[in-house]
Design a protein that fits this description.
Bound molecules: zinc ion
Largest sheet: 5 strands, mixed
Structural class: alpha+beta
Strand content: 15-25%
Strand order of the largest sheet: 12-11-10-13-14
Shape: elongated
Length: about 425
């Protein structure tokens, strides 16, 4: 078999394309494969499919292909151009690569597989690609995947903020709670941030949203009320976020009390912050003994802790009516506790009660699946090398978007 025939088979080149020449450079460790075509072939206009004869050829281009035994391999061709009466002069499509790509579809598939398992730097080393080339492939893969899933309906979503890098910089993440995939990543955590998600939805997708879990964060709530039909019954304030507020109140009580105790030489509360924050059943062994004696001291912090612990039971009710009854008792207790931080938080929750109790209809929380959360943490951890926020976003979509990232190849339709 001649080398051109061999490469025709290896590359899956089919009529009207043929391999015209193969050049091997041992010193450069590369193979160049020239692909040409027969005379008199008619080509389809990429816009409308009309068959036309070649008008001229574009300048020769090269596509990186799968290596041949560790020799970097490049496909080279002059792509024919057609002159469509309707669309003007256009390049015909080639079967081995997507328009504007510098890689063959098979190479992109391999690169995507490697990128799923390795960091950007690692993938670059394995594939012999520059930093920019790797990002180029990732961006194209994400764009392709997002286009393909444009119409999917996410019924139950979670809206969450994620701190990015240093300072007060945030992303807003919209997660499909059922599939555990990231639907949308937007700069900042303002109303306009979430607005841009709702605006990107089709009418059917908007109507299809049944419930939204979010933090008690006014800008997010305002956005949902403005864009989501029936939002008042669909927004559920996340229970873990609510408990975070109440835990903060317990800690504020502790700090104040600790200050007073220390003034009289008693430092029993010093360094006990985390003992009060754990749920009673999750308290680690190392805190247990100390915590038991702290509780026996009849401290204000102990009372705040008990009030906090009892609020956790709210979410275990099955019936919304009983849950509301329980809330009223708890609210009375909390607001008569004479503990200002606790009273303030109780009132804050009371103001938002409608969207706390929607939990009993939808039963969703914002807690992302463990897998998703740890993947995003990993991405964040390696974010130092990302150079910009767009790359960070691309990575989140690439790894967490649940996207079909592959380009079509001859034998593998999408
Ligand atoms: Zn056309």
């Amino acid at each position: 078999m001649r080398d051109v025939e061999l490469y025709r088979h290896l590359l899956g080149i089919e009529q009207p394309w043929t391999v015209s020449r193969v050049e091997l450079s041992v010193s450069d460790q590369r193979v160049d494969v020239w692909v040409g075509h027969a005379e008199g072939v008619r080509w389809a206009c990429p816009e409308c499919g009309t068959l036309l004869s070649a008008y001229d050829h574009a300048e020769e281009r090269a596509w990186r292909h799968l290596d041949s035994c560790q020799f970097k391999t490049f496909l080279r061709a002059e792509i024919p151009r057609v002159r469509c009466p309707e669309h003007g002069v256009r390049q015909a499509r080639v079967p081995w690569a997507e328009p504007h790509s510098r890689f063959t579809a098979l190479f992109e598939r391999l690169a995507i597989d490697v990128l799923r398992e390795a960091t950007v730097l690692g993938a670059g080393r394995i594939l012999g690609l520059s930093w920019d080339e790797v990002w180029h492939i990732m961006e194209r893969a994400v764009k392709r995947g997002l286009l393909a899933k444009r119409e999917r309906i996410a019924k139950r979503i979670g809206v969450d903020e994620k701190a990015v890098g240093k300072g007060q910089q945030y992303f807003t993440l919209v997660v499909d709670l059922d599939s555990g995939t990231v639907e949308h990543v937007i700069d900042d955590r303002k109303q306009v941030s979430l607005d841009s998600f709702f605006k990107s939805r089709t009418e059917a997708q908007l109507q299809g949203i049944e419930a939204v879990a979010m933090d008690m964060w006014e800008p997010y709530l305002r956005s949902a009320l403005a864009h989501l039909p029936g939002a008042a019954d669909k927004v559920v304030f996340d229970r873990f976020h609510i408990m975070k507020h109440v835990n903060q109140a317990v800690d504020d009580v502790r700090k104040q009390e600790n200050k007073e105790l220390r003034a009289s030489g008693d430092d029993s509360l010093t360094g006990s912050k985390y003992a009060w924050i754990y749920g009673r059943e999750n308290l680690p062994e190392k805190y247990r003994e100390r915590f038991a004696s702290l509780k026996a001291m009849n401290l204000r912090t102990g009372r705040a802790w008990a009030i906090k612990e009892s609020l956790r039971d709210l979410w275990s009710y099955v019936s919304p009516a009983w849950a509301e009854k329980y809330w009223k008792c708890w609210y009375f207790w909390a607001t008569h506790s004479r503990l200002k931080p606790v009273i303030d938080k109780a009132r804050m929750i009371q103001r938002h009660l409608g969207n706390v109790l929607t939990y009993f209809k939808h039963r969703i929380t914002n807690a992302m699946s463990e897998g998703l959360n740890s993947t995003i943490q990993e991405i964040k951890h390696s974010a130092r090398g990302f150079r910009n926020r767009e790359n960070f976003k691309t990575s989140i979509y690439f790894h967490c978007g649940g996207l079909d990232l592959y380009p079509a190849t001859h034998g593998n339709p999408r």
